[in-house]
Amino acid sequence: METYVGKKLAPVDVRHHSTVAISTFSSSTTSPVRGQTTITVMPRGQQAPSFFVNTYIVPQITGPTPQAPIVPGQWRHIQSPSLADPLYHLPQAVDLLLGADILPMLLLNGKATGKPGEPIAFETVFGWILMGPVDRNAQSTVTAMCLSVAETLDLSIRRFWELEELPVVRHLSPDERAAEEIYKKTTTRLRTGRFMVSLPFRKASPLLGDSKYVALRRFQALENRLSNDPKIQRQYADFIQDYLDAGHMELVPLENADNVFHYYIPHHCVLRPDSSTTKLRVVFNASSRTSAGCSLNESMYMGPKLQPDIHIVLLRARLWKYVFMADIKQMYRQIVVRPADRDYLRIFWSFSKNTTVREYRLCTVTYGTSAAPYQALRTIQELAIVDGKLFPIAASILLNDTFVDDILTGANTEKDAFEYQSQLIQLCSLAKFELRKWASNSHILHAVPVEAQAMSPALLYNDKNECELKILGLKWDRRADVFSFDTKPSETDRTKRSVLFDIDRVFDPLGLLSPITFWTKHVMQFLWTAGLKWDDKIPTDLAQLWTRYQSELKLIESISIPRRITVDEATTMQLHAFSDSSEKGYAAAVYLRTQTATSAYYHLVTSKSKVAPLKKSTIPSLELCGAVLAAKILLNKLLDIKRTIVNHLANKN
């Protein structure tokens, strides 16, 4: 549903360059995208309605349309003087291809149909447009103007490299400091204990322009789609009804109906068949632009990233004998937005096409708004700070062992585990946060209702798969207390795109599979430097190696790695960091040696690897890079283990 503009028509300014694969018929690819920009589209000679559209710039959209001149005026049902293109009968270049998401906002009610085999006229805000055949005797030439865009690969690869990086200490930017100041000054506490926040606007009470027209047309298009799928329509309606029943949404008050300080948010649904709680989730698009060319998200400060690094949370979870996790139910929706800002969170909704479309406004922090992640996590921190003195252990867990809405923590005795669980439940309840999806390798689940557990409460199973679940994306067998890995290699042709997708599928945040991922990084580097297009097949020799890799990759499903890296009654613990390099790259691994009165135990804690830069480097310089990488792992406080001796061994060359 993207919009494309030809290079000839595109504005001079390119907002930013993009790497986007455009698939056409039979998965062939078009000329590369030159960049992105924003354009204004409006009817000729009018100022409204106008649409601000994000577009991709391409050298050419398609050939001249129509293929050959047409005799004008030959169809009686098409005699309107207000044609969008009065020269429709002459072959002309196509300079703009509007996405399907824009079409519902353009169509009006008019439609003119002629005889079979004649084009149909549709009324739009630009005038009447024609669709259909024009001459059945003409030579058949097919022009396809339906495209699909795959942007997710860039995001996946970006996440892959972010996962490979060590956490760094960041300093707040001016915008992030401004968001923090607004939070401190405007956040209050209701009598119920809930927190109430304001939207962190860059300018107080901004006038954002007209968003009602776009949001209403998109809702009408959504209604049409839902009417064709009763199951999805019912799930969507149930989701909205839950919003209403919980008090998280309300009708726009009559006294606010004419409030000019408002914004209407388009919405759509995302299906999540693997979710144990919400199979359908409504997503609110606060990035939709208004007639003034801005959006709600652009008018707010985003706030700093507050979630801890996933490495830290997972590594801490390996230190305890007993580990447990829980999910904060509807975390965003438990935080109230102050009434003065709710008109910026308006939506359209009706429970069926036979009922009146009504205007509602959301009353809580809303996913889809740019500030929502910051506001939610900042509120969790505020709860820990304000009420933490009552439950100090729970406060520490919220500050250090929480990743987004998932709590992952533990203890070395079941007595302590019960105490920590109790404190967490009590502290979270003070702000009306409810914990659910409990899972553990201990008996603390006995204190949790079955419906609030992630799986059956019994600790012993006949089927191994019944006691497996995910800890922040890692597969965990809580009965055996081990990590394991899934592999899902694609069955498609060996192209640059499919190979990169397969590389991204191996989720290894702790570096437990570094010997494998190190090789795939080399493959990625080669593909990036080989000049291949996204859907070009990879060279034959690499394809053979990749096929062998995929067949052998399934063997890692038989590997299980103990979650816990500590032991009872340890007398000393030593961290040993090793680093080495070759002409292909360098790596560092950290092991924990635990000594008891009778035995010594060794566990791989974490590892990191880097491919050598394309610019030729000497082995000694790469050895030094490996030593620095090992030192960064040790100094980054990833391993907060008391009574620990640290040794760092590096190969000297």
TrEMBL record:
Pfam families tied to this protein: Peptidase_A17
Gene Ontology biological-process annotations: DNA biosynthetic process
InterPro entries named among the record's database cross-references: DNA/RNA_pol_sf, Retrotrans_Pao, Rev_trsase/Diguanyl_cyclase
PANTHER family referenced in this protein's UniProt entry, alphabetically: GAG-LIKE PROTEIN, PHD-TYPE DOMAIN-CONTAINING PROTEIN
Protein name per UniProt: Peptidase aspartic putative domain-containing protein
Organism per entry: Acyrthosiphon pisum
